[in-house]
Amino acid sequence: MLYFVATRAIFLLYHDNRTQELSQEDLWTIFSKGLRLDLSFSSYVSAIPFLAILATALFPGLQVRKFIRYYTYTILVLLSVLMAVDLELYTYWGFRLDSTPMLYLNTPGEMAASAAAAPILLLTVIAFATSLVFALLFRYTFDYKNYHLNFSKLKYAGIALLFAAVLILPMRGGWQQIPINQSVVYFSENPYANHAGLNMPWNLMDTMLKYNEETRNPYQYMDYETAAEKVAGLYAATADSSEKVLRVEKPNVLFIILESYTAKYVKHLGGEPGVTPNLDKLAKEGISFSKLYSSGDRSEKGMVALLSGYPVQTTTSIIKNPKKTEKLPHLGHVFKQAGYGTSFYYGGELEFANIRSYLQNGKFDRLIDKHDFPAESYNSKWGAHDHVLFERVLQDLKQEKQPFFSTVYTLSSHEPFEIPIPAKFKGDQISDKFKNSVYYTDWALGQFIAQARQQPWWDSTLIVLVADHGHPLPYDDPNYRSTKFRIPFVLTGGALATKGKTISTIGSQTDVATTLLYQLNLPSQDFKWGRNLLAPTSYPFAFYVFRDGFTFITPGKVLSFDNVAEKPIIKGKGVTPEQVELGKAYMQYSFEDFVRK
Questions:
Q1: 182: closest CA among 354, 382, 417, 2?
Q2: Annotated binding residue at 259?
Q3: Mean pLDDT, the chain cut into blocks of 10 residues (597 residues total)
Q4: Do residue 253 and residue 173 come from a single domain?
Q5: Separation of alpha carbons 453 and 397, rounded Å
Q6: By the 8 A CB rule, do 111 and 101 touch?
Q7: Does residue 168 sit in the same domain as residue 253?
Q8: 486-487 and 404-409 strand pairing
Q9: What angle is formed at CA 434 by the lines to CA 394 and CA 413, rounded to 5 degrees?
Q10: Best CA proximity match to 191, nearest among 97, 100, 96
Q11: Where are the transmembrane segments (predicted)?
Q12: Which of 121, 247, 363, 530, by CA, is between 20 and 30 Å from 306?
């Protein structure tokens, strides 16, 4: 732990020009937040010596003191060399050392050439001095030989086993449900401040474990240029202009993401009646997009698709890698640049799936999560119930300066489907619980909207209602089935001029951000994976992925393709060879874009 605190200080001193831009409060936060990742990696390193002591119970002849000493020296030297590499790489790359150098192992000449301009002597001195200082500190303070305890071998082994077991807790970052990840150190809009808080070897270890998922594109169906051309043609089929549906030039935007809202429970989309009466009413009062499909089947993937207009990956998720998400466009950032106040509300933990780091890149003014709500408002697993979340949003918006862009993410319709009101529908099956949870969120939404209509900001506010993903329930849809991915998308609110309209154009989650930005006359050129669903198009389509597969939908034609078997799972009537090739091109080109981020 002392070593990592020292190397963080060295990192800040080495990049003094950037560090001078930070406040004293920023520096304190960098060190305090960084301790959790420091503790996690220190626990991994410390487990080996305890296991070595444990082994002496079975093999009394082991020279465990000598092993621990040289193990520690080796770790110190290795980490110090990596530290020196990280110091210089950050100067050029702008991100901490991770698995990226693995991409260049097959070109050692280029690696050597890249390192030629580095201050090798200075970096060598830093690595040597750091190793030496901490080796001496260990030798004369922490070395096992300095402790003479009159324990039996068996007691030694028992204590070692206990300590090794206890280390599991700091390894995962604590008791919380979500294991520790890079998000715990993200606190600032300044990426450098967030990067400085990272524990470099922890970050390297984490990205190495994900290396095969993020550094190669397994979907090679055609040459890169052909795939790029086919995908570009899909977006070129949409006109640049569309009708305007707003009566306010610069409205507030309330972007509400509904957890697991499947069209199968939404009456106005042909779903079961009585489950979402408030959403159905809002759709009737506004504009409903009746053929929208989620881009993936996980919450964090849906969030990126909605707020960044970015396609989902099959075998991984871009949100796991802060270095990649830093390169994504973000609605929060666009609205902030346009002069909007920005905020994000979620009743759960933002550390889940690295969400906090992603949102920090969106430059939100305020992030509200589970820890901002009283514990008595939590369900047993995730966090604050939805009606509590909406109450907080309503309270804050009374003081919010206009115009504002506020994103609200519900969670009560996520398993275990616990609700704080009496069940509307009878039954103890999991599908019954899910249906009741969707009804409860709809009830909480209805309560919120009723009160929002009384607020001064209502008449100048556009409300966007859209799901993060669909759900296999209640019919246990297979993972690739389009009914699992169909979701609601509704525009409503006092700023809307057009009422009671249904848009039947087929679309994907990645189209939502572009559609919104076009209406507000805000820049959308960075959202290159989205179309304006209110503009005419000669080739409407939706694309989504499931584990190692994709579905490509055009009017009346559904193609589901297994990327491993390299053949269709579903090939509906009328699906042409051209549609198959377009689906493959989109799969290949979108994943290649992810790999190159």
A1: 354
A2: yes
A3: 98 95 96 96 94 81 87 97 93 81 61 68 96 96 80 80 90 85 87 92 88 83 97 92 91 98 98 98 97 95 98 91 93 97 95 88 94 90 93 96 97 93 95 96 98 98 98 90 97 96 98 97 96 95 93 96 88 95 98 95
A4: no
A5: 13
A6: yes
A7: no
A8: unpaired
A9: 25
A10: 96
A11: 41-59, 71-93, 113-142, 154-175
A12: 247
Which distant-in-sequence residues (6+ apart) come within 8 Å of 462 by Cβ?
246, 248, 251, 252, 253, 254, 491, 492, 493, 495, 496, 519
Residue 597 lies in a domain: no
Here the tokens at position 427 are: 């039954």
Alpha carbon distance 92, 85 (integer Å): 11
What's the token pair of residue 517?
């930005």
Given a contact cutoff of 8 angstroms between Cβ atoms, the answer to whether 57 and 164 are in contact is no
Q: Which is nearest to 266 in space by CA: 287, 299, 297, 290?
A: 290
- 201 and 259 share one domain: no
Sheet holding 567-571, edge to edge: 542-546, 549-554, 557-562, 567-571
User: Does residue 589 fall inside a structural domain?
Assistant: no
Instruction: Name the strand (E) or helix (H) holding 492.
Output: strand 489-492
Q: Mutual orientation of helices 64-93 and 2-14 as an angle, nearest 10°?
A: 20
Global pTM value: 0.86
Instruction: Say yes or no: 187 and 334 in one domain.
Output: no
Measured in whole angstroms, the distance separating CA 404 from the mean position of its chain's CA atoms is 23
Q: Does residue 459 fall inside a structural domain? A: yes
- Phi, psi values for residue 498, rounded to 5°: -90, 130
What's the number of domains the chain is made of? Answer: 2
556 inside domain: no
Residue 143 among known ligand-binding residues: no
* 135, 267: one domain: no
CATH number reported for the structural domain that contains residue 387 in this entry:
3.40.720.10
For residues 483 and 263, give the distance between their C-alpha atoms in angstroms, rounded to a whole number.
8
Phi then psi dihedrals of residue 51, to 5 deg:
-65, -35
Domain that holds residue 389: 246-529
Give the active site residues. Answer: 299
385 is in an annotated binding site: no
One domain for residues 276 and 415: yes
Q: Which two tokens stand for residue 261?
A: 């809202």
Residues 183 and 324 grouped into a single domain: no
Same domain? For 209 and 253 the reply is: no
Which helix (H) or strand (E) covers residue 457, if one does? none
**What is the C-alpha separation between 190 and 185, in angstroms, rounded?**
12
Q: Please answer whether residues 325 and 357 qualify as being in contact, where contact means their C-beta atoms are separated by less than 8 angstroms.
A: yes
Q: How many CB atoms lie within 10 A of CB 242?
A: 16
Token pair, residue 349, equals: 């933990």
The annotation status of 391 as a binding-site residue, yes or no, is: no
